Amino acid sequence: MASIALVVENDAGTRKLLEAMLRRLDLEVDVVAAPASALALLEAVDYDLVLLELLFPGSSGSEVLSWLEQKRPDALQRTIVVSSAPITELGKVRTQWPSVRGIQKPFELSDILDIARGVTASPTRRTGTAFEEFVRRSVRAGARAAVIVAAGEADAKPVATFGYRAETIDPFLPLALDADVPICDAMRSRTPVWIASLGPAAETYPHLVDVWRANESRALCAIPIIRGDAVIGAVGFSFREPRMFAESEQQAFLALAELAADVIQTRGE
């Protein structure tokens, strides 16, 4: 499998530039515009290279560095901060995380290419898993979080999740199949549940609105996973902003449900 890189950058033009540059090195590239999206990916994917801005509206790229330090410290050696932050801030990053490289904007492409070549010269990639691909494609499609459940005789047990705060989701798991929640409704009806905003959700699922707000969810969808005549599980997605779920979006998430079925199968559920 090819080496993969993650670009965390809030400027669209810079994202495109960095993505194109890294693809010249034959890397697969994931691009996101906020640290929260980066953390959702990093929960599942051990990237060969991370390019990270520090300055974001309402957040900081330092959140990503702190997470890596706690959860995946070896990845700091494969991280390059490419930022418009003052040189003093880059110095603080270097002091706190000595293995992280720092480049101040505006930058020379050759400087980043040279470091990227060195970092990826001995790729750490393993064979990608179904869950890793599921997370990458889900984030690209705009999901901020997801849960995959496998259906049993009386309940639905979680197979995998990303992006949710454990303290708000764990009390609900495992789920009784007759629970009044979207993911169980989808399994019982055998049809997707599309919730474009919390307005309609407040009428249908008033007991869940506080949980969704705590998880910063403003839209949701739940899709049953059907094999043959049997419902083997379901997948639920959450989104940071309301969305219309146009036909093309619906098709994208139906395809992701097929990939979620592979996650259930490979995890032995």
Strand content: 15-25%
Q: What is the top-level CATH class of the largest domain? A: Alpha Beta
Structural class call reads: alpha/beta
**Average pLDDT over all residues:** 90
- Within CATH, the superfamily of the largest domain carries the name GAF domain
The figure for the number of domains is 2
Give the overall shape. Answer: elongated
Total DSSP E strands = 13
Q: Strand-and-helix sequence, N→C?
A: EHEHEEEHEHEHHEEHEHEHHEEH
Structure description:
It is a single chain. By secondary structure, the chain is of the alpha/beta class. It folds into two domains: 4-127, Rossmann fold, CATH 3.40.50.2300; 131-266, GAF domain (Beta-Lactamase). It is built from eleven helices and 13 strands. The strands form three sheets. It has a six-stranded antiparallel β-sheet with strand order 10-9-8-13-12-11, with helices on both faces. The model has no long low-confidence stretch (mean pLDDT 90).
Break the fold down into its secondary structure elements and pairings.
Elements (H helix, E strand, L loop, with lengths): L3 E5 L3 H12 L4 E5 L2 H8 L6 E4 L2 E2 L2 E2 L1 H10 L7 E5 L3 H10 L4 E4 L4 H11 L10 H11 L4 E7 L3 E8 L3 H4 L5 E2 L5 H8 L3 E3 L2 H7 L4 H6 L4 E9 L2 E10 L7 H20 L3
Parallel strand pairs: 1-2, 1-3, 3-6, 6-7
Antiparallel strand pairs: 4-5, 8-9, 8-13, 9-10, 11-12, 12-13
